[in-house]
Batch of 2 targets.
Target 1
Amino acid sequence: MRSFYIKRIISIIITIILITSLTFTMMHSIPGGPFTRERPVPDEILRALNEKYNLDDPKIVQYFNYMKGLVTFDLGPSYSKIGTSVNEMIESGFPVSAKIGLIATLLIVVLGIPFGIISALKQNQTIDYVVMVLATLGITVPSFVIATLFIYFFAGKLGWVPTFGLSTPASYVGPVLALAGYSLSFVTRLTRSSMLEVMRQDYIRTARANGLKEFSVIYKHAIKNALIPVVTYIGPMIAAILTGSFVIEKIFAIPGIGRHFVESVSNRDYTTIMGITVFYAFFYLIMIFLVDIAYSLLDPRIKLKEGK
Amino acid sequence: MDKNKFEFVDQTGEEKETIRPSLTYWEDAFRRLKKNKLSVIGFVVVIIIILFGVVGPYLTPYTYSSQINEYKNLGPIIEVHEVDGKYFHVSKDYNMFLLEEDGTLIERLNLNPMDRDMINKIYTYTLGEEEVILDFSYNLLPNKQGYDYDYTIEYNGEVSKIPSGNKFNKLFPFGTDNLGRDLLTRVMYGARISLLVAFVATMVNFFIGVIYGSISGFEGGRVDNVMMRIVDVINSIPLVIYVILLMVWFRGGGLMNIIIALSSVYWVAMARLVRGQMLSIKEQEFVLAAKVMGVSKRKIIFRHLIPNAMGPIIVSMAMMIPSAVFTESFLSFIGLGVSAPQASWGTLANNALSGLLSYPYQLFFPALSIAFTMLAFNFIGDGLRDALDPRLRKG
């Protein structure tokens, strides 16, 4: 068991190094450098900028400097927001994004799983159809459409929530709904189909034949096994919430890390792009690692082994 | 009981067997697919959308980039005021239009800067020799002071306060955008671009993924290990981030770049799937037989293994198309899409965002198109999965 953790941590470190090298190579092989603008910058200024940010050093030196920075969690200065470091951006943006992401995750678990179970137990009844229609819509309608429609109706027409920012508790509703929409629908569908599958199993029939109450058949025997595929979905869900935040934070003008990333992409702010990518990769890998550990604790049949 | 009522079974004749024609795997799958109503609807919708994108643009008098400066931000349904036998429409930015009775736009009325009384909120437009007076001061009174209308139109001494009805915009069925471009045409071109990106990216993913996965699965051992570690590393962060990095690296949009970015990343899922299939199929006897007969590796992979793994591959391709449409619109939405004036559905939705509260129809049509496409492909994918996946086969 312990050797498994050590191996996983080593593989996380190797992956981070590879991803950093990849993004570094990509960002530094873009022709023109970070200060090439549509309106040419005067040569002297360009030279001064290059000197300030050590861009005249050979690429390999720059690479090792960047890696050295990475070890001490220093991701360097931003090229377009002068005077701000990438670290400061992440520090200011991440808590905001994490809060919304956490609420969205809670919503997915608290709504998605029960609705999936109810819909499976009432298969082919009205409530099942309603839930499934909603879940199918949630998968097919892109999050940015959900977000804009939300703004149009609840902020524009009805005026219940502010159009942007996170000033009041009510203003969390829109971003959280839009962020959770896809995964919520997916979890609902997944829970439903896996619950239906489990309810057909022999051991459920045995439990019923033994005269157990329907309540304990469902809650003690069925749900535990039905939820295994749902737990597997947590990894992709983290990814969906991470990347979903790019669009949601842009639409609702939330100063989170996703908006910093999108802004840095449109500003061609290379250090910020690199820094946030590395941060995302790190965060994502750690989360997946934690999910794996939790997973093996939940389901004793799953033994953590090396490899797949 | 009367024994005569019973009849002996004809013992000489053979028992009648119901003989069904033997079906190949694909015939069987097609039969099941046809039974699935939702996926048939999905196919029909997809064909309609393809026709909409391919043929549609030839049927409208506009191109995706032609601007008609007179007609900006006109909705698909317009409020009409009937005043003294003429029909007028006032847009949200206070342009006055003359219409036919059925809602066809005739012209935008001329407004001299001199006749723009900004203080009293009264604009005076000219229609030939005559004047049309728009008084929108009511709109700005605190709580409108009990008026239940926003503006009045005065023409030839007659005043209209409340619109006489809503008419469909005949010239621009989907309305126009903020540059006076016909939205119907743009949504049609958007369909072209979105579907083109999705189909090409999916095909490229298919080729790379299938070849990569089958080599990895068939070779096994160290080759497999190395190839799968590469896939693991790529898969270790959300794929959209790679696509964004690639788009940054390409220095911006362009149809070609999006296709390259999408297809150079998303094959990993396909590769994993194909490898899994290969691992189970390659152990079967027919592969051993082929090996014994000295069939070359390449031939075994392409003639024996891949055709047998085709079912799950097709299902996964059908699921990949909507996710490519989705990713493309997502990229366009954060400004990494095709370059203007070309537009995909995502770009159109993004453009509509700034004027959302006044002109919601500009978002409505592209969003509806995306949702319809996603829904249709999801239905097809579900249908294909049920038809092709042998594990779900009953009886």
Target 2
Amino acid sequence: MTDQFEPVIVGFLCNWCSYRAADLAGTARIKYAPNLRPIRVMCSGRVDPQFVLQALRNGADGVLIAGCHPGECHYVNGNIKALRRFSLLRRTLEQWGIENERVQLLWASASEGTILAAAVDRMTEEIRSLGPLRWSEKVLGKNGAAYVAVEEA
Amino acid sequence: MTENGKPKLAMYWASSCGGCEISVLNIHENILTVDEVFDIAFFPCIADFKVKDVEAYPDGYIDLCLFNGAIRNSENEEMAHLLRQKSKVMVAFGSCAYEGCIPALSNLTTKDATLEKVFLENPSIDNPDRILPQQVTTVAEGDLHLPEFYHTVKSLDQVVNVDYFIPGCPPEPHQIWAVLQVVVGALTAGQPLPPAGSIVGAGTTALCDECSREKREMTIKRFYRPYEIQPDPEQCLLEQGVICMGIATRSGCGALCPSVGIGCRGCYGPPDGIEDQGAKMLSAIASVLDVGDESMDEGDLEELIQEAVATIADPAGTFYRFSMAHSILKRVKNGKGAV
């Protein structure tokens, strides 16, 4: 084993498409990066921005939100809401100094196991080249004093 | 200090503007009752006490301490620890002590950038030698010391244990008076106090509950900054595209800002059950954005939504104007945030 950095990516996968895509990737024995920690949600529209922030705060290096393609949402337009939230969240995260690659939105239908697997591979490499986030230790630091944040600036 | 048997009241300002003190005085003639019931033990804004007076008090000597202001530097933190030790009941008074408020907006940048902005780049400052405050300065007479300026602004409960929180920037006088009446009742008639850790002097629901503006259906195509629009005096401001934090803000002020045509700024913090006011506001406001639908091409849809979202200037500063210190991420990573 090499000691290269293995990013932790928390994945919020919608029950109707993307979680099934991940399932398909598994049953089809597609090989892809083992860095995704999938969490099944009923709809990508269920993903509260607080979930994303909590994940980043508590040690995730990246967050993937995956849902059905627009027009294919089980709840008609939950994924459109997810896209709207994601667009605004991403602008806010930029102000926090969190790189765009760390939080991504993906459309993957139940038949698109290969698309999901490829996206996880790509995202893992992108985050690996950015390095670990480690928010609590590196940004908040001792007593939230953020010493390291200044060194990085 | 004469002993007259009255309960002891203290009010201290850490990193704050002084507005909280003014709002206490704004309870009008009721201030006489406060004076009647309490003995002022420490109140730098209105009475001449020194820190050494407080240091000389026995532990728990002060019955009620209203602490306002955020923890910006080591002096603020030292005073918070001292007053906690000397007080029976510690109240985080006002938005700064409760959740960081305006001082904590500097968590969107770095300590160095803040000092540079204030002492070097500020258009009204003349500092040709580029002198910045130092913690220790040696002069002929010896060393001079200044408190350490922290990288991250914290709320009071992040440095000491806090018994009650009174939100607001500043807290509304009628709410302050209501809280003081409860305390007076507890001290004089043995009435019960709310459970420790409560948010007092405010409601529990969202501000919209007490806002009289007419609410119809949210169909927002874009957002307007206050100078870009003359809002309708009756209709909900958010429905008109004016950012109003009411939906993610605790009630208690009586919806003062919306009643005069200004969107709620969010100073009462999040309602019960919400951890991160900014994220909830972001979530709510994005989901009522009425652009694009499921029949559109994915690329066009994305572009359209991004255009609409771009009409919000400075989302982090807007949604976290008062709650930065209590937010999930607490500060920015590299200080490139507030550009």
